[in-house]
Amino acid sequence: MYPYQRQFIEFAIHAGALRFGRFQLKSGRISPYFFNAGLFNSGERLRQLGGFYADALENSPLSCDMLYGPAYKGIPLACATAIALAQRYDKDYPYAFNRKEAKDHGEGGLIVGAPLQGRVLIVDDVITAGTSVRESVEIIRRAGAEPCGVLIALDRQERTDDGLSAIAAIERDYGLPVQAIVTMNDVIAWLAESGRFQAELEAIRAYRRDYGA
Ligand SMILES: O=P(O)(O)OC[C@H]1O[C@H](OP(=O)(O)OP(=O)(O)O)[C@H](O)[C@@H]1O
Ligand SMILES: O=C(O)c1cc(=O)[nH]c(=O)[nH]1
């Protein structure tokens, strides 16, 4: 694990964004942990978070023409990443996001921000079953642009109903590379090293026996 990944896990736990308990996921699965990017809920937290995303992108082979954040939690993530890329790396990427419900007055439509064009990087918080990424791919393609990859904070390393890992299925179906700041393996290694989360680790391991990739 790289130092920035360790720092990210500590940052997420400290902010309460990575927490342990009992959570129902979008997929219906009941998970013993949850990553809630909505709890990076101050200017300073968002500034730091954007820095982690920008560093992960710069340290990856991904390249793109613009960023796209799926509603809702992807919206501040794409904005924070765009700001950090401009500040840290002098790269001024356009960004856009969608509305969950189309607006029928004023400027109207589903997309806010820069027009979707060229190679579009999807920026989101987590991938579990991959539903959100699939929806984003459809939106980007419908606009005539080309999804070129996915940047997330946490790869939960789960499998889909057909037994494949959600990320492998995205790569297989769309040819999209996925880059995460950290994976669940990194989180587990960090929890084990800290020695303070024995019960949580056991619950996570049991969950992964059912749903792990
Ligand atoms: O890989 P999946 O199974 O799609 O699960 C992950 C997605 O689920 C959550 O979003 P959600 O649609 O719940 O919306 P929100 O951003 O409005 O919280 C999360 O922010 C991811 O986008
Ligand atoms: O699968 C989900 O719905 C999900 C998992 C998670 O850790 N965080 C989140 O916001 N959604």
Distance between the termini: 20 Å
Order of helices and strands: HEEHEHEEEHEHEHH
Number of helices: 7
Please, what is the oligomeric state? single chain
- Here the CATH topology equals Rossmann fold
Number of strands: 8
Unreliable runs: none
Q: Approximately what portion of the residues adopt beta-strand conformation?
A: 25-35%
- Biggest sheet descriptor: 6 strands, mixed
Task: Trace the largest sheet across and list its strands.
Answer: 5-4-3-6-7-8
Number of domains: 1
What number is the mean pLDDT?
Answer: 94
Q: Are any ligands bound, and if so which?
A: 1-O-pyrophosphono-5-O-phosphono-alpha-D-ribofuranose, orotic acid
Structural class: alpha/beta
Share of helix among residues? 40-55%
CATH class: Alpha Beta
Describe the fold and architecture.
- Helix 2 packs across helix 3.
- The strands form two sheets. A six-stranded mixed β-sheet has the order 5-4-3-6-7-8, with helices on both faces. Strands 1-2 form a two-stranded antiparallel sheet.
- It has a single domain, classed as Rossmann fold (3-Layer(aba) Sandwich), CATH 3.40.50.
- It has 213 residues and is an alpha/beta fold.
- The model has no long low-confidence stretch (mean pLDDT 94).
